[in-house]
Amino acid sequence: MKKQRLVILGGGESGVGTALLGKEKGYDVFVSDKGKIKEKYKEVLIHNEIEWEDEKHTESKILNANIVMKSPGIPDKVPLVKQIHEQGITVVSEIEFASRFTNATVIGITGSNGKTTTATLTHHLLKQELNVGLAGNIGDSFAKQILDKDYDNYVLEISSFQLDDITDFRPHIAVITNITPDHLDRYDYQFENYIVSKFRIAMNQTKEDYLIYDADDEVIVNHLKKYPVQSTLLPFSLEKPIENGVYLDKENIKITINNNQIIMPTSNIKLEGKHNVKNAMAASAVAHLLKIRKQTIRESLENFQGVEHRLEQVLKINKVQYINDSKATNVNATYYALESMDAPTVWIVGGVDKGNNYEELFSFVNEKVKAIICLGADNEKLVKTFGNMVDVIVETQYMDEAVKIAYKVADAGDNVLLSPACASFDLFENYEDRGRQFKNAVRNL
Questions:
Q1: 117 annotated to bind ligand
Q2: What family is this (predicted)?
Q3: Could you report the per-residue pLDDT of 229-283, keeping only the tens digit for each?
Q4: Which of 303, 332, 349 is at the close of a domain?
Q5: Is residue 116 a known part of a binding site?
Q6: pLDDT in tens, 70-85
Q7: Domain hosting residue 405, numbered range
Q8: Residue 112 labeled ligand binder
Q9: Residue 115 counted as an annotated binding residue
């Protein structure tokens, strides 16, 4: 019996995790990365005697695969990926590959915004009483956790790119936090394609499974009307009562599942902002479904600290609050950030614009923003869009300069908010790098 050949495109966290799991399950494994593989990952591959290459793709070693796992960062339009598809070779994401080797209960969380906070919060609620891992777009790779720990439950944060390459993946509980235009450069600038991609999270679900979603999000509601899913629906809403699901009644979150109701006061939730009430609703619904005690859910909501780079309060200097929201890589995320500002704000914005429409921010900018600092390689669109709305608009390509300018412009009682509304790849390695540079610059003031 010849071994099945597993080729992995991309030698990052998910690629190396898949390689280790694949080897353990008896595949002939080869890892290929067009860029440089980080030293820490090279060492793992060498130590485990897994064949690899970087800074090139050798076609002869790739096109003889039985199955290809490609990193979510590689678009389908790449010629090599097209060739792989033309040869009829199966292409899967790490989520698809890894899920074949576990019997765990899987909670899959997707959405344009709030998925990291919701996934982290859900994990925080569940881990008090269950054996549960957190993986996907976050932390250690899903494949590697299955190999090392194989938890009974997993909370997975899943991007649309990871969902594009699933075939049989079926989470017992799926969550869609919201859907707003994002990554349209990967979806032929068709919002509909991106919506369909997000809904793949429910495509293999049956009526024994659950789909938790935002009933106030017209995009989701309309898509469900047109394309019903098999799963049991559990909507959540801030605006209207919900019979089977979650809603806000004055200051209380009411969760009703199969006529079993629990009530959670929102007054002590650590996370601020309306969008975080929604994240708490989704996470609490998962916890209630998995029989976590009411008391545990309540205490966990009250002591959850939030996620790094997401409206993270860094320091107060001369009565000015510096806030790191580097994870806001699209306009909708920045919408939530500006919405939650309760003082005049110096706003640091910019990066790689993915076809952004900034209109929904205009009312907040007019009302709350006193100065704008554009931090990007190309700021032309931002200056054009916001130039007439604020008295001060400055351009820079350096984080420490952006923070110094903010320090000069801000008065006691103001906020300085890094909420870029764009991807970070022009000046930074990723949004974490951008957020860390911001925090370091603030600490060095």
A1: yes
A2: Belongs to the MurCDEF family.
A3: 999 999 999 999 999 999 999 889 999 998 889 998 888 787 777 888 999 999 9
A4: 303
A5: yes
A6: 998 888 888 999 999 9
A7: 312-443
A8: yes
A9: yes
